[in-house]
């Protein structure tokens, strides 16, 4: 019995040292690809958010100018304003979705960094704690809890890079082309916000608020921006729908499907592994004595 405890203690100490040494080394391909995915996806989401906010600013200026055109009796301005309302609403909703996606990516990146730094070290520490538990005859439930903690940390260390790789494959192979195409279309319109922001303050308040001023070239430029925005309204709505659908799909995959799959796998492993290990140890330690032979 003493020899068995010594062997198990030695094995736990060796495993603890092995896990601690392994924690200093990154997984060659998975960690690098996961870091690259988080950086690329966050950069893409940030660009999409900036483009969407720029488009929202252009639409807001256009809607303000519509109110000033209405007293002139021009019915086209009313129709243009009604056309810009869904664009304004979609940009607001898309902005909220992109903020949630950026926050989700940031949380996953932080979780990945923490798991990479402490998961294997935590396993090494738990294995060392299990050594005295062998000698004080700790209850099986305490040993099962230690085993579960090790399994959870091990799954976190390897499952987070795996989920990041799955997300990266879906992102680069399916969603990124759709996102880049939509952002390119919206960027043409949102770039005009920079041109509007360079105008004097009295001209930024409305497209035709300075009709009596001498800055005819600025007014003509704003008029052309307004006309382009109205003419491209259908394409803008299509691009917004594409971008919203792509990021919504990415958000559902990252926040719902992959985490739920990881939790399901953890539940399966935790429900089976510790119980089987303890059952095997108990059966090994409590084997029935062989029957005595009759003389």
Description:
- This protein is an all-alpha fold and 295 residues long.
- The protein has one domain.
- The protein has helices spanning 2-22, 30-69, 75-135, 140-190, 192-197, 201-204, 216-231, 233-285.
- Helix 3 packs antiparallel against helix 4.
- The model is unreliable at 66-78, 201-215 and 276-290 (pLDDT under 50).
- The chain crosses the membrane at residues 110-135, 147-171, 246-267.
- Residues 1-21 form the signal peptide.
- Keywords: Membrane, Signal, Transmembrane, Transmembrane helix.
Gist of the model:
Residues 1-21 form the signal peptide. Keywords: Membrane, Signal, Transmembrane, Transmembrane helix. The protein is built from eight helices and no strands.
Helix percentage range:
over 70%
Termini separation (Å)?
31 Å
The unreliable regions are 66-78, 201-215, 276-290
Total helical elements: 8
Helix and strand element order: HHHHHHHH
Strand content: under 5%
Signal peptide: 1-21
Transmembrane segments: 110-135, 147-171, 246-267
Keywords: Membrane, Signal, Transmembrane, Transmembrane helix
């Amino acid at each position: 019995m003493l020899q068995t405890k010594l062997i198990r203690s030695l094995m736990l100490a060796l495993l603890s040292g092995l896990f601690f040494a392994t924690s200093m080394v990154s997984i060659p391909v998975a960690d690098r690809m996961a870091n690259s995915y988080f950086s690329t996806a966050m950069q893409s989401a940030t660009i999409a958010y900036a483009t969407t906010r720029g488009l929202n600013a252009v639409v807001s200026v256009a809607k303000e100018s519509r109110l000033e055109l209405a007293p002139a009796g021009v019915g086209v301005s009313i129709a243009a304003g009604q056309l810009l309302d869904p664009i304004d609403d979609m940009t607001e909703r898309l902005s909220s979705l992109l903020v949630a996606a950026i926050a989700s990516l940031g949380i996953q990146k932080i979780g990945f960094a923490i798991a990479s730094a402490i998961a294997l070290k935590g396993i090494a520490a738990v294995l060392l704690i299990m050594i005295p538990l062998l000698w004080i005859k700790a209850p099986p439930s305490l040993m099962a809890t230690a085993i579960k903690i090790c399994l959870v940390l091990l799954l976190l260390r390897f499952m987070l890079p795996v989920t990041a790789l799955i997300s990266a494959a879906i992102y680069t192979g399916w969603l990124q082309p759709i996102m880049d195409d939509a952002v390119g279309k919206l960027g043409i319109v949102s770039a005009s916000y920079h041109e509007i922001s360079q105008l004097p303050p009295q001209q930024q308040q409305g497209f035709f608020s300075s009709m009596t001023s001498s800055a005819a070239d600025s007014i003509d430029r704003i008029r052309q921006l307004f006309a382009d925005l109205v003419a491209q309204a259908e394409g803008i709505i299509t691009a917004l729908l594409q971008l919203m659908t792509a990021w919504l799909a990415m958000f559902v995959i990252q926040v719902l499907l992959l985490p739920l799959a990881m939790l399901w796998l953890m539940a399966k492993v935790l429900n089976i592994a510790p119980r089987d290990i303890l059952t095997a140890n108990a059966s090994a330690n409590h084997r029935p004595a062989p029957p005595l032979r009759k003389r």
